[in-house]
Write a structure and sequence with these properties.
By secondary structure, the chain is mostly helical. The protein has three helices and two strands, in the order H-H-H-E-E.
Length: 89
């Protein structure tokens, strides 16, 4: 019985670690989404366009709920008129 309790405790700690990492990743994605939405791709150096496109494509592939959670994690909102993201700290 004690071994089961130890395993349960270890799983609980691992879950806490994973949830913390998830929150950090949501913040990275939210900040990246806000940054990409605010960029003018015509003003980017050619070397940065490929990276910005990769980030944008990856973010666009996320489920809507995950993207919403990411935006909430950094307190960002997408302006419905022009699609730009605004982060309010």
């Amino acid at each position: 019985m004690r071994q089961r309790s130890e395993k349960t405790s270890m799983l609980g700690r691992e879950l806490d670690i994973l949830m913390g990492e998830r929150q950090t990743l949501l913040q990275v994605v939210g900040a990246s989404a806000a940054l990409i939405a605010s960029l003018d791709s015509r003003a980017l150096p050619p070397a940065a366009v490929k990276s910005a496109d990769l980030v944008a494509t990856t973010i666009n592939a996320l489920p809507d709920e995950t993207l919403r959670e990411a935006l909430v994690a950094v307190r960002a909102e997408i302006d419905q008129e022009d699609g730009r993201a605004v982060v309010s700290h």
